[in-house]
Amino acid sequence: MQPPAEKFGRVTIIVHWVTAISVLVSAIIGLVSVYTNDTETTRLATAVHQSIGIALFVLVLFRTAWRLTHPLPPPLPGTPPMQNFAANAVHALLYVILFALPITGYTGLAARGRDITIFGLFDLPHIVPLSRTLSVNAQNLHMYLQYALYALVLVHAGAALYHHYIIKDGLMRRMWGLRA
Question: Domain spans of the chain?
């Protein structure tokens, strides 16, 4: 474990923004796969959505390992303890949901016997039993988690913007890698 720095390190910043962009792209493509009437577009969008979801799972595993070995910068001086608690809670929930979404997506497909091809390179093995009930429950949970993720991302981004534009305390600059 290294001592905390005043701002986030380069790897943390890169992984944060790659995760954010991947979540956004996956959400958009997932919605396209659900709301399009063209079968070929639906298949392609679904395949890309699944591939990004599995890649995100691996990225979040890496991000968690990195986070455990590279501490966060200390809270800004004068930050109320309740605000720190809320920030930590939102971040913890984001990690939980970013782990759970790929797992529920995978389970929903694998329990139905569907192939899960990753970027056209290989298929994931089916390690869950075939079960329509399990598939439906996993897909429903995947949908609810999706909405929870949207809400948490709005809270997270809203808090960052609040700090940047209202409080003007330089908090957001630490994740951009900029000097105060």
Answer: 10-176
Among 119, 108, 147, 113, smallest CA distance to 54 is for 119
Q: How many CB atoms neighbour CB 171 within 10 A?
A: 20
pLDDT tens digits for range 40-58: 999 999 999 999 999 999 9
- CATH topology for the 10-176 domain: Fumarate Reductase Cytochrome B subunit (1.20.950)
Residue 74: Cβ within 10 Å count: 12
Name the β-bridge partners of 122.
118
φ, ψ at 6 (rounded to 5°): -80, -25
Instruction: Name the helix (H) or strand (E) containing 48.
Output: helix 39-69
Cα–Cα distances (Å) from 5 to 68, 73, 175, in that order, read: 14, 5, 12
- Output the CA–CA distances (angstroms, integers) from residue 148 to 64, 101, 154, in the order listed: 20, 10, 10
pTM of this prediction? 0.89
pLDDT tens-digit profile of 114-154?
A: 999 999 999 999 999 999 999 999 999 999 999 999 999 99
Given a cut of 70, is residue 2 above it in pLDDT? no
